Amino acid sequence: MKETILKLYEERPTSYTNEHRKLFSDFLTALNKGEIRACEPQANGWKVNGWVKMGILVGFRMGELTAIPYSEHKQFFDKDTIQERQFSLKDKIRIVPGGSSARNGCYLAPGVTIMPPAFINIGAYVDSGTMVDSHALVGSCAQIGKNVHLSAGAMIGGVLEPVGSRPVIVEDDVFVGGNTGIYEGIILQSKAVIASGCIITSSTAIYDSVNKCFLEKDGGGSFTIPTGAVVVPGSRPLKSDKSFQISCPIIIKYRDSKTDSSVQLENDLRSILD
What we know:
Layout lengths: L1 H10 L6 H15 L6 E4 L2 E4 L1 H13 L2 E7 L2 E6 L14 E2 L5 E2 L4 E2 L4 E2 L4 E2 L4 E2 L4 E2 L4 E2 L4 E2 L4 E2 L4 E2 L12 E2 L4 E2 L4 E2 L4 E2 L4 E2 L4 E2 L6 E2 L4 E2 L9 E2 L3 E4 L2 E4 L2 E7 L2 E5 L2 H6 L1 H10 L1
Parallel strand pairs: 5-8, 6-9, 7-10, 8-11, 9-12, 10-13, 11-14, 12-15, 13-16, 14-17, 15-18, 16-19, 17-20, 18-21, 19-24, 20-25, 22-28
Antiparallel strand pairs: 1-2, 3-4, 22-23, 25-28, 26-27
Helix pairs in contact: 1-3
């Protein structure tokens, strides 16, 4: 599969055969099952699987725009190769009525809860016990760990190109507050808490008030928010004109028992849903 996808990506054929379409269908099935991932954890960090992103892009090139019936008076239009994923009770995923959608080619583990409306894009990986709250986005190829809460309006950015670029990664037991934006290959390490309203990108300065320093970019060209860090919105003076302020999220402390009690609701919700 990998070799054929690499060949199709590089050659960019003007037409595709039924065999190519069957290959892409098998590729989507592997993504749905979590057998392949756009990015995966390794002993020394996260590894980007660029060929998986290439496969998704091949699917978009291969697809033809088609009408997708929605109701008697409404329809959508999308590529026939990449449409909405269908679920059944055996998937053990809680999808609350109200307009949520997940694209074919995303992995949702048993025990995931999706509140309406939310959208999960192709290539995304969402592990067990995670809640995707109302108006939240899990972008293409984003990797979400176990027991994560993506609060209402949380935007987890996606990335397909460049194919070697790292997606956003949210590790286990992270709490992401409402109306936040996490983009451009940011890693939120386990148990981090991101307060409502934080916007974090690869060009955002992030100050660690505990260790009295700015975070430095990691080997992936973006930032890694440390394990257990509690991050709130902040600002700093603009260097060229100190009368203006620019965004600068601040690590105000590292997670402790008081922080744990403030997010206890998440555990209570999960115990109700189990």
